[in-house]
Design a protein that fits this description.
With 172 residues, the protein is an alpha/beta fold. It has a single domain, classed as Aconitase, domain 4, CATH 3.20.19.10. Helix content is 28%, strand content 18%. Helix 5 links the parallel strand 4 and strand 5. Helix 6 packs across helix 7. The chain is globular, with a radius of gyration of 15 Å.
């Protein structure tokens, strides 16, 4: 179970490794022809059999370096949203995936993820730029997200943001 507030997200960690490309969560063998629900039920099966079945909505994916590398396939983010992913934390992301995630309201946060284990409870404080693991004495710094990016995430992505703020004026 996760909790999402103004600039804070908490949930259980689901750990994946390095170099997780978009074909692992949104396999091209299913596109076109299968809907997002079907693809989400098979997400990451080549990397971690049964991952999608174990994943609980509101969970936070914790990955290694280069999460989301490979293609600019926006469906990869749609599948993660369909699964109920609250956020993804990794030391680095594929740039196209990173931007697709922000545009679709999925928080992607860069941080050292070493030693975080599946099942750990995480609290991601976007304003303080800090990842906390319950039971650990100290938090870890996350790369800062500019205020406009945090505003996009709060509104659920680029389209909802532009519908609410067509002049791009972000409220203070």
């Amino acid at each position: 179970m996760s909790e999402v507030t103004h600039d804070q997200i908490s949930g259980s960690a689901y750990v994946l490794g390095d170099d997780v490309n978009t074909d692992l969560n949104c396999s091209g063998k299913y596109l076109p022809g299968k809907d997002e629900a079907y693809i989400a039920a098979h997400a990451f099966e080549a990397l971690s059999p049964g991952f999608a079945a174990r994943f609980q909505p509101g969970g936070i994916i914790v990955a290694g370096t280069h999460f989301g590398i490979n293609s600019s396939r926006e469906q990869a983010v749609h599948v993660l949203r369909r699964m109920g992913v609250a956020a993804i934390v990794a030391p680095s992301f594929g740039r196209q995936f990173f931007r697709n995630a922000i545009n679709n309201g999925l928080p992607v946060l860069e941080c050292d993820t070493a030693d975080i284990t599946s099942g750990s409870t995480l609290v991601l404080d976007l304003q303080a730029q800090l990842l906390q693991v319950t039971g650990w004495p100290a938090g870890r710094p996350m790369r800062a997200l500019p205020p406009v990016i945090r505003a996009l995430l709060r509104e659920g992505g680029l389209i909802p943001f532009l519908q609410k703020y067509p002049d791009w004026q972000v409220p203070a």
